[in-house]
Amino acid sequence: MNITQHPELLDRLAASYALGTLRGGARRRFETLAREHATVRAAALVWQTRWSGLTELQPAINPAPAVWARIDNLVQADKAAAAMQAAREPQAAAATGGWWRNLLVWRGAAAAGAMATLAAVVVGVQVNGGLRATTGAQMAALQQQLQATPQIQYVAVLADDKATASMLVTFDPKNNQLVLQRVGGFQEGADKSLQLWALPPAGGPRSLGVLGQDKLLKLAAGEADVRQVPALAISLEPKGGVPSETGPTGPVLFKGELIQRML
What we know:
Blueprint: H1 7-19, H2 24-36, H3 38-52, H4 65-96, H5 103-123, E1 126-127, E2 130-131, H6 136-148, E3 154-159, E4 165-172, E5 177-182, E6 192-199, E7 206-211, E8 216-220, H7 223-226, E9 231-238, E10 252-260
Antiparallel strand pairs: 1-2, 3-4, 3-10, 4-5, 5-8, 6-7, 6-9, 9-10
Helix pairs in contact: 1-3, 1-5, 2-3
Domain Anti-sigma K factor RskA C-terminal: 112-252
Protein name: Anti-sigma factor
InterPro entries: Anti-sigma-K/W_factor, RskA_C
């Protein structure tokens, strides 16, 4: 089954993967699909950015030593189970004719991940062996944050020639802006600028803006700037960028497919 043809299922799997509740063989299969499909990679990165903001809702707490011991035990047990599953999986897959491709299996994994996600958000952190419930104020802040999440219609993962992701680009139609998040370690020099380009199916590249050096960047843009644009690219230019009419003058460092997500 091609999960890229099932947006709701892909979204739930990506959320579970980013949170860490998608485990074992299902997690490894998701990672394999992410390497093969830009749509899957983009969905995972989108959810990683969403979940990363949730840590701000909890005050800093030093867990008891017993908590770290339990975490280590779980990690070691998960590694052992993964090794055993990896040894059995080729034979199991051959015997069942690729059972994991079945839609019901994916839906089951997604449902389990969704339940674990809900539990993780509502319960909060574990301290001294007990469960501390999330306060009403924290839940209100969480609800406000989720409601403020832009409705992403376009998304691209821009990577280098070794397929290493460097920039996550999303289009926020409500605020008419492109949101770029650095997900790699590249940092341009003080005398250089990164410049974002649309690569339309006809005509030359069109500049969408010059990037600052912040980890999270926003550029004003309308849907007309990204509609029917199959790919985006980032070039390294002199400080301040170059005019759109000239096209990229420096090396193109990152590029990727621009995917329209039906939400």
